[in-house]
Each structure stands twice: as C-alpha cells, then as structure tokens.
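Batch 3, record 17
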Amino acid sequence: MTDHDELELAVANVSRRGFLAGIAAGSLVLAIGWPSDASAQEKKFGADGMPNGWRDDPRIFVSISPDGLVTVTCHRQEMGQGVRTSIAMVVADELDADWSKVRVAQAQGDEPRYGNQDTDGSRSLRHFFMPMRRAGAAARTMLEQAAAAQWGVPVQEVRAREHVVLHERTGRRLDYGALATAAASQPVPAREMLKLKDPSAFRYIGKDRIGLIDNQDITTGKAVYGIDARADGMLYAVVARPPVFGGRVRSVDDAETLQVPGVVKVVQIAPPEIPSEFQPLGGVAVVARNTWAAMQGRDKLKIVWDDGPHASYSSDTYRAELEAAARKPAKVVRRQGDVDAAMARASKRVEAEYYIPHLAQSPMEPPAALVQIKDGKCEAWACVQAPQATRTRLAERLGIPEENVTVNVTLLGGGFGRKSKPDFVLEAGLISQAMGGAPVKVTWTREDDLHHGYYHTVSVERLEAGLDERGMPVAWLHRSAAPTIGSIFAPDPKHELPFELGMGLVNAPLAVPNVRMENPEATAHTRIGWFRSVSNVPHAFAIQSFVAELAHAAGRDPKDYLLDLIGPARIIDPTDIGDAWNYGEDPKLYPIDTGRLRQVVETAAAGIGWGRSLPQGHGLGIAGHYSFVSYVAVAAEVQVDGDRLVIPRINIAIDCGPQVNPDRIRSQMEGAVIMGAGLATSSEISFRNGRVEQNNFDSYEVTRIDTAPREIHVHLVASHSYGQPLGGVGEPGVPPVAPALANAVFAATGKRIRRLPIRDQFLA
Amino acid sequence: MASLTINGTVHEVDAEPDTPLLWVIREQVGLTGTKYGCGIAQCGACTVHIDGVATRSCSLPLSAVTPEQKIVTIEGLSPDTSHPLQKAWLELDVPQCGYCQSGQIMAAAALLQANPNPSDEDIAAEMTNICRCGTYNRIKAAIKLAAAQSRG
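Prediction for the assembled complex:
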C-alpha cells in the first residue's frame, strides 16, 4: 500500500464528521496524523465508529407524563424516510406502549447528549434499532420496578402490557401515567440485565399497523418545515451569491435596492476560504420586511463579480477531459489477478464508456433557516440533516461558545444529501449578527438551489472486458473518473476517496478471475456533495449497463448472465476485494453475501415476468446492486410510444435484513424508483463558463406523475431473524433504477444508452 | 391595504400589489401550509383554490385578487380532516417528507370537483405538481380511493 492509499483510507475511517474535525483545524494535517494514532486503537464499526457514537439511556429518549402520554425523543432528522415514526415504533414496542398515547419530540442538535445525529448514509435504524429497543425496554423495566415497589411485591411478579403494569396474582393494575413519577426515580437498569422482547411478541416492529406519525399535520398544512419557522420581529433575507464557485464581489451598487419598499439593509457576506467545506459562498444579502421585497431588492443589485478560477468550467469540455483521463492507465484501486495477460488471451474484447452528469438534489423545500442572536445566545430553526455540525459551525463562524448555540430541527421538506451541509444556516446566522441579532430567515429560491448547490459528482466510467469462448469475462478493467466530495474538505484532491470507491466500484461482487479498477485524476470545479446513493449512482449505472452489453455480446439472456457474473452464493469479505470502508460496518458482521444479491435479482425478475413475450416497442431490463449494506434489484419495462418513453412497470426487490417499518421501506423503494427514473431519463445539471445552465424545474427536469412509472411493485425479501444486522433503506433503491431502464431501452429498441439522462436517445 | 377572503375569513393585508399571493398568505396572513417550491408555477406546491379553481399562488400578484374571491388554502379544506382526500391520504400513508402534499391535495380536490371519477390518464393530465420524494403512485391511488368513497 502506498502512503497515498493510507492517507485516503485514514480519511474515510475517521468518518465524515471526524474527518471534518480534522479539517476544522485548518488543514488536512490532523487527518493525516490519524492513522498512527488509530493503529494503536481497535477499529470501531457501525454506530461505535461514528462521532459521539450512540446512547440508549431511557431518560434521554423517553418521558411519560402523569396523564399517560409517552413522548419519544427522536434524535434523527425526518426528511420523508419516516424516521420519526419508526424510531417511536421501536421504543413504543419495547415499552409496550399503546400507540395512540405515543408522541414524538424532535431533539435539538446535541450529540454529546443523544449520540450521532448525522442523518445520512442510510444509517438511522441500522445504527439505532438496538439502542432504541434498549431505551424502551429500560423504561418499561423502570415502570415495572415502580409498580412492584408500590405494591410491595417482587418485580418478577409484575409485567407491563399495553400501557398498564399488572400484578396477575392479585389482579392489581396501574397505568403508565399513574406510575410515571415513581418510575422516573427508579434506577436505570443495567444494559446487560435488560430483557428485550422476543421478536414474536413485537406489536409494531415489522408490522404494517402504524401510520405516519406526522401525516395528520401534513394533510392539514400544520406541519412546520424550516421555511415555515417564524419569530417575533423576524426579518427576511435572500442572498446574491457568486454565479461561479470561488467567485467574489468586486463591487456592489445597492442604491436601487434600498429604494425597494420593505428593504431594510444590504449586507455583504465574505467569501470562504478554499476548501470551503460547509461555509457560505459569500455574496450580498438583502434584508427586508418580507421575502418578496428581499427578492425584488436582490434583482436590483448591481454587482460586479470576480468570477475566480473556475470561470471556464464547462460540462462539454470537462467531459472530454474525463474521457481522456479514463483512456489512460491510472491509479490502481483494486487489483486481482493479471488483467493485461488475461485480456491478451481473451477470445473477444468489449469496451464501453458511460457518462453520468452532475445532478442537484433539489428537495421541494429549498434550503431555508431562521437564526436569532439574543443576549449572546444564538438560536436556529432549520431543516438540517446534521444538526450537530450546524451547531458547531454556527459557534465557530459567529464566535459564540457552542453551549450558547441551540439548533432546533424542523421537518425537512426533502433532504437527499443537500441539507447535510448547513451553509444556508450560517448565512442566516451571519446576517442576523449583522442586524444586531434580530431574527432573520434566509430563504433560497429554486434558482438559488440549482445555481449554488453541492452537486452530485459528474463521471466518466470506462469498462473493458475480455471474454472467454463461452462469453464470460476473464478480464475486467474499470476506470472511474469523477471529481471527489473530498474537494470541499481538502485543497484540490484528485482522486475519489475510499468511501466513494467503496460505493459499488471496488466492492462490486464479480465472479471474474482478473480484475483491475483504476481511478484517474479529476479536478473539482464546483462544490461536490452527497446526493442520495452518492457514487453508487454512476458505478451501478456503468457496471450494470456493461453487464447487459456483455450478455448481448455473448448472445445470452441478460438476467441469466447477470446471475452468472454475480456467481454462486458465497460470502465475500469486502476487505479481500479492496474495500476497507464497507459503509463503516464490521466486515465480519456485514460481509457481501452474493446469495442475497442473487435472490433480489431473481425476485425482481420473477415479479416482472421476465421472459414473457412483449408487445412491439416494449422491452425489459434488469440490474442488481449492493449498497448501504443492502441488496436491491430492479426489473423495468419500458415502452417506446412514438417519441415518448413510457415506463409501464417497475419491480424492485430489496433485502435490507430485518424490517422495522415495512410500509416505509416500500415507500422508500417507490421514491427511489421515481428519483432513479428522473435521473435516468431527464435530469441534468450542466455548466457553461462556470455557471449552471439550468434555472428552475422548467429546465431541470424531474419526474412528474405523467412520466413516472405507471406501476411500481415492491418486493421485501424477508429476513429470517431480528438477530441479523439491519441494512440501509433510504438510499440503496436508487442505483439500480437507471441501468435497469437503460437496459430495457436496449431491449425495446436496440439502442444502447451510454450517457445519462436518456432523454430522446432511444430515437434512432 | 388590500382585503382577502381566505378560508371564510376576511384579512386586511399590507403588501405591495405585485407581491405574489403565496407570500401574502404565508407571511402576512401567517398560513404556512401553502408552500414555496419554484416561484414560476412549475411545481404546484403553492396551489390554493380561488373560487374553486386550483391556482398556483406563487405566480398570481395580490393585485389580481379581489376581496370577493374566495380563497381556500389547505388549512381551510376541511376543519376536521374530513375531506375524502385527507382521509385517503391518511389511509394510504401517501406522504414522505410531506412538503408538496398540501399542494397535491389542493390540486386533487379541484380535480375531483371537476371530475368526480378520474381515470389514470385524467390524473396524469391534471396532476402536474412535483414531488421529489416520489409519492406519485400513492397520490394516484389515494385520489381514486377518495373518488370511490365520495361516490359511496
């Protein structure tokens, strides 16, 4: 292993925010210093390996009032994945609470208290299922202890059931409300003494009994998102940001702006140091009595920008650069066998290049936050995925001790990775500071969201295979060229980080004897950020499209060929194939199980009726992908109808291990299909002269009801035991959708799609 | 000052005449169930009813609305969640993040008003609101469920 490899591994192992802690000191030095410190320590996995780990103390997560209402504190952020419902379900089940008496409260950003709160990486239930079960069970035990003490009987003789503690021998019973005060002063039982429910006794976990806890508020307009936050005397702001990343204000004339009725003040925000991490882009803020006045005032600003070093960034020329890089030998990130020798002996060679553009998360609620500073204390209300990072960055940037910074988390009107970065909250904080601490709400317009995002990377994926006489690959070469998310944290890195390479590239489970994967250099010219499923999107698109191309070259059925390429059911240690990251999970607990991957492929194929005869113009495609330690396959049917591409049906199968909230798993799969179909067929962010070319949903095209798959069938592959570790749910549905659709287009038309979005490429 | 009739109540609002109705409803009247999503009538998150017609309030200036016109927002659709669409939304657990759903429900309510028994094609043609979470198939099912239940 080279020194360079070691550095990158270290950066990934520190995990996202540990990594940031290093960067916050001003350079990569701490991160580089990490391996030698760490080598002495035992490597931590799962929630143990996350900043601030986990908590399971019932006093943190459960409160019961004398009227019997149970309030579960949810420390993970709700953005549509249903986590507020699912976390409360888990606690309520072990607590044996009556669901009609369960409420949920949203935790403030405070990881020392709650454990890790960074809601991304499809980790909430994966990491907190067991701690939340223990919190519920401990609270139940405390209720039982309180009842036993009150009745003067051994605790073994009482039991809690559905919001009541019973003493069967004497028929005595007390409801949870009556016991609440006494239970609170009971000792918290030791973790190892807790008796968790046998899964056969689960009332909510794994059942479809519980509706979405916020649904009533949502359907009546009462649900509060970041953009809805309000405070007395609140001012409203929008910000004119540099049109090119890295640009800065050369001069500003705000005379006309200040004439706009309702405009109060114009405030400059300093440009960030590069790498800019989560800092605002800088620019000119217009503060007004209402949002419309602020927008009108911003339109009237006369700003001369210095565009900075990325003013020539254009997507067409950048694509050519990535292609050139992918056609030359590059840094090897996985090597198995001798690809060159096997390639030379192969009876047939196939190669293909795929292009996957930038994307914007574009959650329906754009970034928005309210911040006020009063008596030296800062309070924020914001739609953030990472409230602790928000708190820390506010404290640093505003120069206020962290203990005096409060971050209240609202509902998120979608996140998809965009709201992992609190730049917009820092803007509100800086403007509030400039306004003497007055409450200021910053709202991003849709144009702001599309022009100043943290974009999904752009990539060229080049694959070459050498096939034997049966048409199976004996050599596999994959070069993945894409600017890295690391570029927002470190000065000008050129290579993908282990967590990006480990998203479906180096850990692709292929039954191929000779494999080499390479990562050419790529320079970032804009902010690159997490987008739902992250690097799995390009890696899965390329690999699963290429598999279908090889099947065609071999004259074989794509589904059978895919299964043969996955190979027989076996357990792969990801570290053996070059993935030391493994989504932060213990490779012993979470090896790659190709039997599970095979099963989802077979399930999706059976679901869509693979092999059935189809009308003219229809085609079926399939793709299977392992990500976020879950297994997903998608089978898609497309229909070319004149110049339209219609998607009559998609079957998606997931094996995510034990299921906590099956209906929310189904809804995440449905949503992943829609988002995957959008990025496959129509969505693209492109740059010209450093500027994003798309302005709004008229040019950044996302799936609507008329272009959505007409039917989506979700297959949940059952887990045999709740003793199995949980897989992710929020993200793994997305990656196989685009290749399944592209493969279906090929089946329907003979037109091979190597560039996303598909748009009208199927028209020959 | 302008006068608006929203959910049966007359509100005097102090806003520039070119202010889109959306921002008046959200900031002057204080009803935040109506959402901003794009500002150019593309996404429908801001959908309200004006005299029963689904209208994208982000692109309608205050000056274009008269005091006599009846504006209904999601908060006024039914005071007790009894509208068949709200019930269907609960029954099928349609929302994910929920942000676009008030606009979706308002658009669907106007659709059912005009067409009590919409086909899939009618729904696809009329429901042009964007949902990034991807709840479209449940929206479709919920509209049909509400339609069926309204027919009794």
